[in-house]
Structure to design on (168 residues):
């Protein structure tokens, strides 16, 4: 079930909906002038059989969402020559892909020093608007951990799904 949130204020920012990613697999480096690591997209209309998963739950706009392949860490980094090498993450929508009670951690860094950390518990049937407003970072790291298995072994990885990423 898709949850619609009031629009987080992305004025003077970039609302990344992933609808215009120029591939159908890994998000390429240079997309929104950023470096993307283990960030993939999926067209939710192709996998309608996954309608009960977090891939559909996190979907907030369009039909494309981003996720972390195989449950590995995802990161987004600034390119050294862009915006003085730093950015702000305002918000995004997230859900666990397959399992409830996924501990989802977000880390904001500058020059490899941790400036911000937040852990949220995600569900697969209820998406969350995560508002951070973290400034002056050059990398953000996302990862899932500590989820109890609730079904298919293949789907028990620590995969999370995000949409409507608001960066500046």
């Amino acid at each position: 079930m898709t949850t619609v949130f009031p629009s987080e204020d992305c004025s003077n920012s970039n609302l990344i909906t992933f609808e215009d990613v120029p591939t159908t697999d890994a998000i390429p480096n240079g997309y929104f002038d950023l470096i993307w690591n283990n960030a993939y997209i999926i067209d939710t209309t192709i996998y309608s059989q996954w309608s009960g998963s977090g891939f559909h739950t996190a979907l907030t706009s369009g039909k494309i969402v981003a996720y972390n392949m195989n449950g590995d860490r995802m990161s987004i980094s600034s390119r050294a020559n862009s915006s003085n090498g730093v950015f702000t993450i305002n918000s995004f929508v997230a859900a666990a892909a397959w399992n409830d009670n996924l501990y989802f951690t977000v880390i904001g860094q500058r020059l490899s020093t941790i400036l911000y950390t937040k852990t949220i518990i995600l569900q697969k049937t209820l998406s969350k608007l995560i508002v951070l407003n973290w400034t002056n970072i050059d990398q953000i790291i996302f990862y899932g951990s500590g989820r109890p298995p609730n079904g298919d072994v293949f789907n028990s990885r620590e995969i999370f799904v995000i949409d409507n990423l608001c960066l500046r």
Remarks:
- Residues 30 and 36 are 8 Å apart (CA to CA).
- Helices lie at 54-57.
- The chain has one domain: 14-167.
